[in-house]
Amino acid sequence: MSNNIQQQTTINIQEKANLIWAIADKLVGVYKPHEYGNVILPMCVIKRFEDTLAPTKQAVLDTNAKLDKDGIVVKKGFLETAAGQQLYNLSPFTFQSLLNDPENIKENFESYLNHFSENVIDIIHRMDFDRELQKMADNNVLYLVIKEFCTSKAYLGADLVTSVDMGYIFEELVRKFSESYDEQAGAHFTARDIIYLMAELLVGNDEQKLEREGITASIYDMAMGTSQMLGCLTERFLKIDPEAEITSYGQELNNQTFAIAKADTLIKGGNADNMRQGDTLGDDKFSGYKFDYIISNPPFGIEWKTSKEAVEKEHNLGKAGRFAPGLPAIGDGQMLFLLNGIAKLKDDEGRMAIIQNGSSLFKGDAGSGESEIRGYLLEHDWLEAIVQLPNDLFYNTGIATYIWLITKNKSEERQGKVQLIDTSQCLSLIHI
Q: Is residue 48 part of a domain?
């Protein structure tokens, strides 16, 4: 991606995020700033569905009426075909028409939401939007918020706002909400530059081979957030081979970000069943799966106490479990995510780019779990490179961070070696 295109895209993302953030001002007095996301993020998801479905809205309504007339009960396939999507809405209401009846806007909006296809209703429920809808109605801000989302600048349709850009808009909003409460936004947000660098590290050296042979690949993110990493890696593959067949898989613990990721997958036409919710360490949703590529930024310094029983059980399974080499200190589960990724890479060909902080490098004396895990990597000669990143790339964090590049198919000239790359003094990373 050229610098000019990427800069323009970044500007558009910032402008759109700022506009949506401004909508949150309508919530002043009803919500605290750090609570704005409870309303704004679900509304963004719903509006994106609305705008994406708008061109085929009437065709869906006409198809539904004909099916009813013909006495056809099983409608799902017909309606998806009419919508041109794996989702649809059978309500006659739109955001704009909801404004025509202010007195009944809550009831009409509820009806509008309940007429989405079941997969969308599930997403909305996961975001706990029912509770917020009632609160907005009780405090007379629902009409104002819907009205603001009706402006042309608030258009979020997939024809003009790409999946990758939408992911970054969501992440920028999450960052703003987190900063308003002095939360660690770095736990949610991974800067664009970092992700493009990770994608390049994964596939850049093999670009000519991949272009020549064509690309069919499975990709996985074990802490996917809103799935932007999966989107960017897919984008990089498509740049090499426009006919690339990429199957994405992801797991996420947070309800809200998981719902966003699932929504985006639906709109892209991917398999939303491959996006799964749960604790990756304690409740692995992809047991037995193997992937070609893994890209991930798991949380830093998060204790794994709540997953302790499940983690230790797998550790005791030895090679049959994900955590055989060793267990890190209970207060920092980073290296468990590292082991999870290694266990899920295809033998003799899988590659992983994963972000770690300094504890994975330096924590743990000889014989400790951390030391045993590092030894395990080196003994198998899977660690290809470690890239130290500038300290200010993660919001609200100033700690040293690194990209670990794990390769189960090291080239002959790299065997027995680990490349250490220091970019910590770079003012900005090179855009790919």
A: yes
Q: What's the pLDDT at 246?
A: 96
Q: Is 230 helix (H, G, I), strand (E, B) or coil?
A: helix
Name the nearest CA neighbour of 6 among 189, 268, 192, 202. Answer: 192
List, in sequence order, the alpha helices (H) in 99-183: 105-114, 118-126, 129-138, 142-148, 163-180
The whole-model pTM stands at 0.88
3-class DSSP state of 298: coil
Task: Dump pLDDT digits (tens) for 9-63.
Answer: 455 677 788 888 888 888 888 988 778 888 999 999 999 999 999 999 999 999 9
Residue 89 phi/psi, 5-degree rounding, is -140, 125
Determine the Cα–Cα distance for residues 368 and 266; give it in Å rounded to an integer: 44
The per-residue b/e assignment along 337-367, b for 16 or more CB within 10 angstroms, e otherwise, is: bbbbbbbbbbeeebbbbbbbbebbeebbeee
Contact 245/216 with Cβ under 8 angstroms? yes
Paired tokens of 75: 């409608």
Asked if residue 413 and residue 306 are part of one domain, the reply reads yes
- Cα separation of the two ends of the chain: 5
Nearest residue to 249 via CA among 206, 208, 287: 287
282: containing domain = 184-422
